[in-house]
Amino acid sequence: MRLSKRGLGAEESATLAISGKAKAMKAQGRDVVNFGVGEPDFDTPEHIREAAKYAIDHGYTRYTPAAGTLELKKAICAELSRDRNLEYTPEEIVVSNGAKHSIFNAMMALLDPGEEIILPTPCWVSYPEMARMCGGVPVFVEGSEENGFRAKIADIEAAVTPHTKCILINNPNNPTGAMYTREELEELAEVAKRHDIYIISDEIYDKLVYDGRRVVSIASLSEDARARTIVINGASKTYAMTGWRIGWAAAPKDCAKVMANIQSQATSNPNSVAQYAVAAALTGPDDEIREMAAEFEKRRNRMVELLNQSEDITARKPEGAFYVFANIKKLMGKTIDGEIITDSMAFAHLLLEKEGVAVVPGVAFGAEGYIRLSYALGMPCIEKGVSRLMDFAQRAK
Ligand SMILES: Cc1ncc(COP(=O)(O)O)c(C=O)c1O
Q1: Which residue of 75, 111, 113, 321 is most buried, as measured by CB atoms within 10 A?
Q2: Residue 376: CB within 6 Å of ligand 1?
Q3: What's the pLDDT tens digit per position in 46-68?
Q4: Which domain holds residue 213?
Q5: CA-based angle 265:271:272, to the nearest 5?
Q6: Which ligand 1 atom lies nearest to the CA of residue 100?
Q7: Residue 199: in which H helix or E strand, if any?
């Protein structure tokens, strides 16, 4: 078929090859520890599941308004006010099929062909591809490990050109778990104001932060910042609801209207039953959520402690999310059973083949010399997987 340039330009995820291989190995009976997962291993809390059953039995099974039910939008507004110090009205909320869809809507609403979007790296694999699908041009700004994997605000400002339309920040970050400080966000908001550019703030991991931290939303820092920011969040990570597909965007009314129009023509409303369940999640008890976060914190501590016992691998303690971004630069160029570890992709393939451990290569996030390990796995699996990783590192000569 003669397919579109846009369609052909969408790259297959760099991580698919690894996860496909891991699945095939598992199917052949191999014991694989999968650190590649991007979702909580907990079940959706019971009161949320019960709400969904109620919704099915009580007729919440029809089309809803395209941008989401009023009930859910009100629950989102209440949550933004309570937890993020952000005041929005329901007309400023667009509920979508996951935060991924919300980010896509945001880029569709902001980017004209050829306009630039600044993406601090390491960044989530989908941002650059989505930006390109929307006709935008990703411009990468490196957040070095020495700077806690956060891009320097001065470097972001230096990347601004007359074509820059927006900046996307992910706080806390996937894959590094890094969090921007309040001061950095204030500086970034000033940069955005000075150059009249917009901000997409992906805060999907905002409830999974550790050591008593709290996320500050850049939109809460000033009236001007609020007016130029699209805040993204969703139920997937916080409430262990990845399969339910509910995310949302909060943005000034004119922008929310455009995103809602785009969505109404593309997909109509997100699933009605899932919307009902997420409203219950946002308004219900949060003890299970806090327990999950506490468990993630314990796992993070253990994983980082174990990884740092290796001579060749180092791991910075992430502030949030559920990933460790480990430095494997000392192993680059070494050989294992005669095969050279040329880069993070080769490392991931060899580690999977030799030790049955799946990780995501850093190159997928725009950072060579690293691997991402998820700690959304039980403690015994974490210990087993890291021990195999250490054996692998020791064998490399
Ligand atoms: C940084 C980031 N943003 C957004 C998402 C999308 O989440 P969902 O579409 O499940 O709401 C993910 C999922 O992995 C993510 O890591």
Answers
A1: 321
A2: no
A3: 999 999 999 999 999 999 999 99
A4: 48-283
A5: 110
A6: 9
A7: strand 198-202
